[in-house]
Amino acid sequence: GGLDAAAAPVVDALLMSAPEAAAQSKRRALLEAGLMLSDEHFEALIAEHSAKRQTAEAVEGLASFLEKRPPAWYPGPAD
């Protein structure tokens, strides 16, 4: 569709970029944006994510997705 057509030149330009240069640019952009995480912070995020995936909320979220229904916490559309 339209989005695919619009994104195609960007994707193509990224694929033409040398992999190591692209990785270095990505690291630099993350660092400059203050988004580069220390190993300690990264490990904490992994632990939090792993713990969250084992909750009743996560089970309901996955079940509602697989059953193609709104999750139990969704109140319905606003009137």
Walk me through the topology.
Blueprint: H1 2-16, H2 19-32, H3 39-52, H4 56-66
Pick out the low-confidence regions. Answer: none
Give the helix/strand class: mainly alpha
Report on the biggest sheet.
Answer: none
What is the strand content?
Answer: under 5%
Q: How do the SSEs run, as a string of H and E?
A: HHHH
Cα-to-Cα separation, first versus last residue: 32 Å
Mean of all residue-level pLDDT scores: 92
Share of residues in helices: 55-70%
Q: Give me the Rg, rounded.
A: 20 Å
* Number of DSSP E strands: 0
Describe this structure in words.
- With 79 residues, this protein is mainly alpha-helical.
- Helices cover 68% and strands 0% of the residues.
- The chain contains 4 helices and no strands.
- The chain is flat and about 45 Å long.
- The two termini are 32 Å apart.
- The model has no long low-confidence stretch (mean pLDDT 92).
Features:
flat
Task: Report a brief summary of the structure.
With 79 residues, this protein is mostly helical. It has helices spanning 2-16, 19-32, 39-52, 56-66. The radius of gyration is 20 Å and the shape is flat.
